[in-house]
């Protein structure tokens, strides 16, 4: 029995080698005597996949036997990146694989580079989901992730003459070794049609006769935990034509059209919407949302019914996590199933539904909240619209009893917005139904209570919670920064920090230790070399390792103020140009690195990318400047590039106008990697300051409470001289494209909504402080060590434990295995 508990597959290098060769021959179908790096990667991935499958079977059987309460994490986006390195590290067999491969004449790292990124998401929210899956698996929680299997992930960014072009991401073209298609796990999903009232067993009930039927098929992706045998599942749905409906079309003889319309079903899950902030009310997007929600809920209810027959127990066995409003139709769908299909009484069903959902909102401003036009919803999901009206009716009646006839407030809180275009407010629906409403940082949670959901907070203060975001140290240190990982384990005397990241505080006592400092600097150098090589290969620009590597990588948005960064770079350039040689010799050399994608329709963001390239062109070719300043734009920033960029950064910039970044998670990854932050007091930075102290980072800019007043002052406020001079250089065509950039300058000298001009002086001061600190390596290194040491609170392990305990009410369910000694 014991042997079986450990599985069939052996993990010594010889067994691994045999497995790899087996997969070369029989899975990849190449000769085991002749295969290239890509084929070796495929075989390797399949051998890892076997081990993941075995563990996920064990985990699922164990969950089934124990029947714990499970959490279902519903998210329309998961930014998983690559899986190979992460998997073998979490399985604890990376070294064995490396040895097996080297005997075959291959290098593990080289093969790992063959893997493409799974980019089924936009930015922060999507990568957060991926980090949280890793933590749920590692902490042994009985969890499932549910999402959509887009055929095209986030677009590839190609830069031509400084302009962003979008190209499709054919990520499945070379196959995806990690997923398993479950041809038997399929569910019909209904759309359109009409709702009829019928009498069933003497009771009135609503029957939805759909106009279109699409089949959802499951693709399972294993998510292994670290230091545990538990391996959970991310189940992604893909659209398939439904046989039931199509047979009729075939029988009527319209063979060609019937086949063509079959193809339409696949469109539902084909593309990811590439905008991470605005909601456009598009029919396909709504279809995607319902498609994924409906399939997931059917799957969850099927699993529940396998072991239970009474829906009273449903909330004891199921927690549903809404990752933003995107999956919030799940609320309505569960209501529909309980009332229309399980024939529960409305009020009983509503009681149950209200115990299921935990809702996390990631938006900061009201404009970022989803509203679905009633006409659209009514045509695509007629029964759901009725249910929403009924939920709203009951809610408003209840509300009147609590707050009286305050019509302004009633209309603000209503789920239905009666404006020129009548819409459904998905955020209000979620707040009304969820038992907890979570913000993603303390600052953001306060904002929810005092601004976005003030009316609701006054009604139900107990619902509102803060679940500060976090990132997984497995991906962001162990996988991406092996040298730092080794150093941390050496100085802490244990690898236990990989599961218990709070142990990193143990570094604090050595922050002044000369030996640690020396090793710490070496690690940074190794990572800077890797980044410098990448930069040179990608852009031809040679950068000096002695320079400060100053990075701002994230989606391009006006509120994230990449423009402020570029204006600062122009200022620096201008200063250097106006210095004599002796002054220049005191300048701290910088390599400024900017990267990130702009949403395809976001013209201002695209202009900022163009400006960055124009400025880079000028600076990098100016022999007066040489190594004192370089600017590079990294195209197509994604998870695997982040793994190279973040460890190699000395300084990272997080410049959002205060009050605009709900949390920000990039900063947490940089922090873990001992990179110093230059940041505004916004989002999670406020908590980072609490952990590491304001003296260990460079803060600047208006604070949240000052922003409204500064904006009031309006367009007339004084543009500081330094800022005006920089803008003049752009306007005068120093960087070319004079006309094209005028509007960017106007935005700063005009309304200046994002406060670039008013924060400019303070930004330059923070930059000067960073230069000064960098010139003192001991001081800098100490600050760097203290950054890593204080990063424990920003592990997604902490986030997930918070959710499990304060919101989901679930407990670990750990498969007993070799990890338990
Ligand atoms: N764009 C926020 O803007 C936050 C992440 C994850 C965002 C970030 O500040 O760190 O979520 N919001 O919580 C979002 O996606 C739909 O709203 C983001 O990634």
Automatic annotation (TrEMBL):
Q: Which domain of life is it from?
A: Eukaryota
Catalyzed reactions: [(1->4)-alpha-D-glucosyl](n) + phosphate = [(1->4)-alpha-D-glucosyl](n-1) + alpha-D-glucose 1-phosphate
From the Swiss-Prot or TrEMBL record, what is one GO molecular function term?
A: glycogen phosphorylase activity
Listed InterPro entries:
Glycg_phsphrylas (IPR011833), Glyco_trans_35 (IPR000811), Pyridoxal_P_attach_site (IPR035090)
Q: Tell me yes or no: is Transferase among this UniProt entry's keywords.
A: yes
Q: What keywords were assigned to this record?
A: Allosteric enzyme, Carbohydrate metabolism, Glycosyltransferase, Pyridoxal phosphate, Transferase
What GO cellular-component annotations does this UniProt entry give? cytoplasm
Instruction: Please cite one Gene Ontology biological process associated with this protein.
Output: glycogen catabolic process
Q: Which cofactors is this protein said to need?
A: pyridoxal 5'-phosphate
Q: What is its EC number?
A: 2.4.1.1
Query: In UniProt terms, what function does this protein have?
Result: Allosteric enzyme that catalyzes the rate-limiting step in glycogen catabolism, the phosphorolytic cleavage of glycogen to produce glucose-1-phosphate, and plays a central role in maintaining cellular and organismal glucose homeostasis.
Q: Which family does it belong to?
A: Belongs to the glycogen phosphorylase family.
Task: Tell me the protein's name.
Answer: Alpha-1,4 glucan phosphorylase
């Amino acid at each position: 029995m014991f042997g079986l508990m450990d599985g069939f597959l052996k993990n010594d290098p010889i067994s691994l080698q045999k497995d790899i060769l087996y997969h070369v021959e029989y899975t990849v179908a190449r000769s085991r005597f002749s295969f290239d790096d890509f084929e070796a990667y495929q075989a390797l991935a399949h051998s890892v996949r076997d081990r993941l499958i075995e563990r996920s079977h064990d985990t699922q059987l164990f969950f089934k036997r124990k029947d714990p309460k499970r959490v279902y994490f519903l998210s329309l986006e998961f930014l998983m990146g690559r899986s190979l390195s992460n998997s073998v590290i979490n399985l604890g067999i990376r070294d064995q694989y490396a040895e097996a491969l080297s005997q075959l004449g291959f290098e593990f790292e080289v093969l790992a580079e063959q893997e493409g990124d799974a980019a089924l998401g936009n930015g922060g929210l999507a990568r957060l989901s991926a980090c949280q899956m890793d933590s749920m698996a590692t902490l042994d929680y009985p969890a499932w992730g549910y999402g959509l299997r887009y055929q095209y992930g986030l677009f590839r960014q190609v830069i031509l003459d400084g302009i962003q072009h979008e190209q499709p991401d054919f990520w499945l073209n070379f196959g995806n070794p990690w997923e398993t298609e479950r041809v038997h796990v399929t569910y019909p999903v209904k759309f359109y049609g009409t709702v009829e009232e019928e009498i069933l067993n003497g009771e009135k009930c609503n029957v939805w006769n759909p106009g279109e039927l699409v089949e959802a098929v499951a693709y399972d992706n294993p998510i292994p935990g670290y230091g545990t045998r538990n391996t959970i599942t991310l189940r992604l749905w893909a659209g398939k034509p439904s046989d039931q409906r199509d047979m009729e079309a075939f029988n009527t003889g319209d063979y060609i059209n019937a086949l063509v319309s079959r193809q339409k079903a696949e469109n539902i899950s084909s593309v990811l919407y590439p905008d991470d902030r605005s909601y456009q009310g598009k029919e396909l997007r709504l279809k995607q949302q319902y498609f994924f929600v409906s399939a997931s809920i059917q799957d969850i209810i099927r699993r529940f019914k396998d072991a239970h027959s009474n829906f009273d127990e449903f909330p004891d066995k199921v927690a549903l996590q809404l990752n933003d409003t995107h999956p919030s139709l799940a609320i309505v769908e569960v209501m529909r199933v309980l009332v229309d299909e399980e024939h529960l009484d409305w009020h009983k069903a509503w009681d149950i539904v209200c115990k299921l959902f935990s809702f996390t909102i990631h938006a900061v401003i009201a404009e970022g909240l989803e509203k679905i036009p009633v006409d659209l919803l009514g045509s695509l999901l007629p029964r759901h619209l009725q249910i929403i009206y009924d939920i709203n009716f009951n809610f408003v009646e209840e509300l009147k009893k609590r707050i009286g006839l305050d019509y302004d407030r009633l209309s603000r809180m209503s789920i239905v917005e009666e404006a020129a275009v009548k819409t459904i407010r998905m955020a209000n629906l979620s707040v009304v139904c969820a038992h907890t409403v979570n913000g993603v940082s303390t600052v953001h949670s306060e904002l929810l209570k005092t601004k976005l959901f003030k009316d609701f907070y006054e009604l139900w203060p107990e619902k509102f919670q803060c679940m500060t975001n976090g990132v997984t140290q497995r991906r962001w240190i162990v996988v991406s920064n092996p040298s730092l990982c080794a150093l941390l384990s050496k100085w802490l005397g244990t690898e236990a920090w990989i599961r218990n990241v709070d142990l990193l505080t143990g570094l604090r006592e050595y922050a002044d230790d000369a030996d640690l400092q020396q090793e710490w600097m070496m690690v940074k150098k190794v990572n800077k070399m890797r980044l410098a090589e990448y930069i040179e290969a990608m852009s031809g620009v040679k950068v000096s390792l002695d320079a400060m590597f100053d990075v701002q990588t994230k989606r391009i948005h006006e509120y994230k103020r990449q423009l402020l960064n570029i204006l600062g770079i122009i200022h620096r350039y201008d200063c250097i140009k106006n210095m004599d040689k002796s002054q220049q010799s005191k300048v701290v050399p910088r390599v400024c690195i900017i990267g990130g994608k702009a949403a395809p329709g976001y013209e201002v963001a695209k202009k900022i990318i163009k400006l960055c390239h124009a400025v880079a062109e000028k600076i990098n070719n100016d022999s007066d400047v040489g190594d004192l300043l370089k600017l590079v734009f990294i195209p197509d920033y994604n998870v695997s590039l982040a793994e190279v960029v973040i460890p190699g950064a000395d300084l990272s910039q997080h410049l959002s106008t205060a009050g605009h970044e709900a949390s920000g998670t990039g900063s947490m990854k940089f922090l873990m990697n001992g990179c110093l932050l230059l940041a505004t007091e916004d989002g999670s930075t406020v908590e980072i300051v609490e952990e590491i102290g304001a003296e260990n980072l460079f803060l600047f800019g208006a604070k949240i409470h000052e922003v409204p007043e500064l904006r009031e002052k309006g367009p007339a406020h004084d543009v500081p001289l330094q800022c005006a001079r920089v803008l003049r250089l752009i306007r005068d065509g120093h960087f070319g494209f004079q006309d094209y950039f005028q509007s960017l300058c106007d935005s700063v000298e005009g309304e200046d909504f994002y406060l670039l001009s008013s924060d400019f002086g303070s930004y330059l001061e923070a930059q000067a402080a960073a230069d000064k600190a960098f010139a003192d390596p001991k001081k800098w290194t100490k600050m760097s060590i203290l950054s890593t040491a204080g990063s424990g609170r920003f592990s997604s392990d902490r986030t997930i434990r918070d959710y499990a305990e304060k919101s989901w009410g679930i407990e670990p369910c750990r498969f007993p295995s070799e990890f338990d000694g």
